[in-house]
Write a structure and sequence with these properties.
- This protein is of the alpha+beta class.
- It is built from four helices and six strands; from the N terminus they run H-H-E-E-E-H-E-H-E-E.
- Helices cover 23% and strands 31% of the residues.
- A hairpin with a 6-residue loop joins strand 2 and strand 3 (58-66).
């Protein structure tokens, strides 16, 4: 677990238990990528999965983190591009992710990568107080009419997220 905790220096990145990481690695290895510097330092990682049915079949970003020493160098964009390419190969309609509404830096980065705020999920993140999340999406080429990125006009609760 030390391996990933060292990269999660950002308090906004969720940290999971070892069994969670190994489950993802076993089920969706192509969605788990680590960026390593030439000297062998971990620069960041992304983990995700493919899920859903029909026109809701999509790639999902579960976690993306970049070590502070390697931020603003395009590492996150490179990792996101890899995950998007995997989702394209799996014939996904879109890629989605959840981000804290307070995480303006990440929200702006995702917008610059072509993501839109699809909906607000009320009290998605536990805390004191709980915090809302944006469900952000980017259409893949399979979604020719871009139906997956038409924003919802009302917020939803976590139990209503499909």
């Amino acid at each position: 677990m030390l391996y990933f905790n060292n990269v999660n220096l950002d308090p906004l990145t969720e940290t999971y238990g070892l069994s969670f990481y190994t489950q993802y690695l076993a089920h969706w290895p192509e969605y788990f990528q680590v960026a390593e510097s030439p000297s062998g330092e971990i620069m960041g990682y992304i983990m995700g999965k493919a899920e859903g049915h029909g026109e809701n079949w999509h790639g999902h970003v579960t976690a993306l983190t970049v070590s502070p020493d390697y931020r603003r160098l395009g590492v996150a964009a490179t990792l996101m591009n890899i995950l998007e390419d995997v989702s394209e190969k799996k014939k996904a309609y879109f890629v989605d992710l959840f981000v804290r509404v307070s995480n303006k830096v990440a929200i702006n980065m995702y917008k610059n990568l072509g993501y839109i705020v699809y909906r607000t999920v009320l009290e998605y993140y536990s805390g004191d107080p709980d915090e809302d999340a944006y469900d952000m999406r980017k259409a893949c080429s399979r979604d020719v009419n871009k139906k997956s990125v038409i924003p919802l006009s009302h917020p939803v609760r976590p139990e209503d997220v499909d």
